[in-house]
Amino acid sequence: MAEGIGVNQGTGVTLQNRQAIARRIAKFFHSGDIINLGVGIPLLVGNYIEDGVLVHCENGCIGCGPLVDESKVSPNMSLESFRNAGSQPFFPLPGAIVFDSATSYAIIRTGILKATVLGAFEVAENGDMANWYSETKVSGMGGAMDLCKAETVIVATMQTQKDGSPKLIKKCTLPLTCSKKVSYVVTEMGMFQFIDHKMYLKEIREGHTLEEIKNTTEADFIIADDLKTNVAF
Amino acid sequence: MLKNKLASEEEIMSLFFDGMTLAVGGFGSTGAPRQLIELVIKSGVKDITLISNDAGDRDVAQGRFYTAGIVKHAIHSHVGLNPDFSRMAQEGKFTYELFPQGNLVEKIRCGGIGAGGILLDTGLNTDPMIEEGKTKITLHGKEWLIEEPIRADIALVRARKADYFGNMTYRGVQANYNPVIAMCGDITICEADMICEIEEIPMDEVKTPGVFVDYVLNTQRRYI
């Protein structure tokens, strides 16, 4: 997938951090896995997944390929038939299959979906996550609560909000998307894993320190015995 | 001889009424019956209850209903792509209910298949709003929410191809909610990119049987 086409992912260090998070998350998946990518950083994961990982889109497709750069397509070409859940047009890969919404949610609810990658406003140390409700804008939960029924729930997020306050906190303050269901959180500084509703720091990204992570994380986390440092994301 | 259900714009507009409950297929900007949406607005009806996945994009697809200001109550899953929705909701222009997407699809499907509801656990133990007013039951040791069925006075759907009896096919991700919404209306109206003769859609390839469809918008445009 061409990097970032059609997706507003920022520039400079912001974009590099987002790409690093996406690269690290892509390493979780292997050929044959069916995964769903939310909007924002998760969409970038599609740029780095190995061949054969199948991207599911909740509006009814498995086998979603690269996003289409609409500015390079004839305006007479209808791009309506293949758009993802965020309304961005994509190329279906060879062998892609399409289906209606009831079937799509059957795939989500029954464990066929290996993993879902979502953005978040808040993640709590027990694995709770909030990503659908904000006090300033009514937006609705869409498929986020359903998608958290996937076997593995991976959150892609920056360590802090825009105002510098931590996103990884003791207890969520916003309405939850899922309760104790997050499996991994990948940020621009490191990777955390949840085991038995406890949060473990597993990897520190190269260029970052434990001190930095402690200073930007409110949640209590345990340093894993097998913590890896200086990891290239 | 199968009934010919082709209907003119005027015939279709005469079916709409103030205060009607309207279910509309489509997901974001894909698969919405855009010509039928325009007919609803052109008919001048108001105070509708709108059931659909989302509120469309601003002034696109379902978003047209909000631009026209004819929604009294909205039932959706996601409304974040249409900034008009958030603004108008905060101004109290209409009331609304939001459901997890898979739950909303199944509520509509239950209305369409004659079921009294469905047991789902999506949304349990998240936000109290999700469980508000719903019955919770424990069955074989597991907790479930009862999601009750939804039906509509009128359902609007979009096909890639439809014959004049209303047998439908879809293209790409344009199916989305259309197959369940086609079943949930007391009156179901179909709009198609292409209108064809009976048997032009091979019987094995029909996705929505025409028995669920009451009218097919007779458009001069036979191909997009």
Question: Could you explain the architecture of this structure?
Answer:
The complex is a heterodimer of chains A (233) and B (224). By secondary structure, chain A is an alpha/beta fold. Chain A has one domain: Glutaconate Coenzyme A-transferase (3-Layer(aba) Sandwich), CATH 3.40.1080.10. Chain A has helices at 12-26, 41-45, 101-109, 144-147, 210-215, and strands at residues 34-37, 54-57, 61-67, 90-98, 115-118, 122-124, 129-130, 152-156, 168-169, 184-186, 190-195, 198-205, 222-231. Chain B has a domain at 18-102 and 151-217: Glutaconate Coenzyme A-transferase (3-Layer(aba) Sandwich). In chain B, 24% of the residues lie in helices and 28% in strands. In chain B, strands 1, 2, 3, 4, 5, 9, 10, 11 and 12 form a nine-stranded mixed beta sheet that branches. In chain B, strand 2 (21-24), helix 2 and strand 3 (48-51) form a beta-alpha-beta unit. Chain B is globular. At the A-B interface, helix 3 and helix 4 of A face helix 4, helix 5 and helix 7 of B.
Q: What features would you highlight for this structure?
A:
A: 233 residues, Glutaconate Coenzyme A-transferase, 10-stranded mixed β-sheet, 17% helix, globular, B: 224 residues, alpha/beta, 24% helix
